[in-house]
Amino acid sequence: MDLLHALFLGIVQGLTEFLPVSSSGHLVLGQKLLGFETPPIGFDILVHLGTLIAVFVFFRKELVKDFNLVFKKKDLKIFWLVLVGTVPAVLIGLLVKPFLAEIFNSLLLVGVSLILTGLFLFSTSFVKKGKKELVNFSGADALIVGLFQSLAILPGISRSGSTVVAGLWQGLKRKEAFKLSFYLAIPAILGAQVLEIKKLLQIGNGMAVPHLLGFFAATITGFLSLKILKKVVVAGKLSYFGIYCSLVGIIVVITNIQIKI
User: Fold this and answer.
1) What is each CA distance from 101 to 15, 36, 105, 247, in whole angstroms?
2) What is the pLDDT confidence band of residue 259, given thresholds at 50, 70 and 90?
3) What is the DSSP letter of 19?
């Protein structure tokens, strides 16, 4: 992997991880249509850690505030909601793990999933502006958001998009839906990478610079994409991304069907 390739992949990871367009779906499309090779596992871990750092930096004030509530008032509500919202993705992830290779090898599935993501995002145009704060959110509400997060196991379903949309459907304020989505991202990203962390030790000396370049690119672009998405969510303009996902999904489905015919 050369420096240009590492920089490109880091930027793509940072942008698509948080913008509601599905990073996994774009990864499959890139590998299938553009001839991209699957990056080394060590590189994949680093760019995901980069996006995780972006979350911590972006939400630093909210995280400090919520941690203070825990230590001063022993209010575990926010952590209970994140825990409940994380469980469905863990359970469903374990169930579909034996089929992941087949799932990530289907362009048709990616296309259909992108269309579904587009429909999710379009639906927010018809959702009334929510009034709930996270302190008023129930465990059942969080479980529903978690179920939508588990759909993102499919390449083409956006994790950020599906969780923000589910939060809005449950009556959360836009800023609160945005925050919950990325609080849920912390265990989702961390849990997916921690089992492979030992692979970082296998990075050769000659590959250290490309790996670090990808890491910093993912961190910076991840932070910037969070700023963009927050503005889009607060403005109620998620449907713009719905147009993009739907168009790409339709093109992928039509192209895939024509190839098979």
Assistant:
1) 24, 17, 6, 25
2) low
3) S
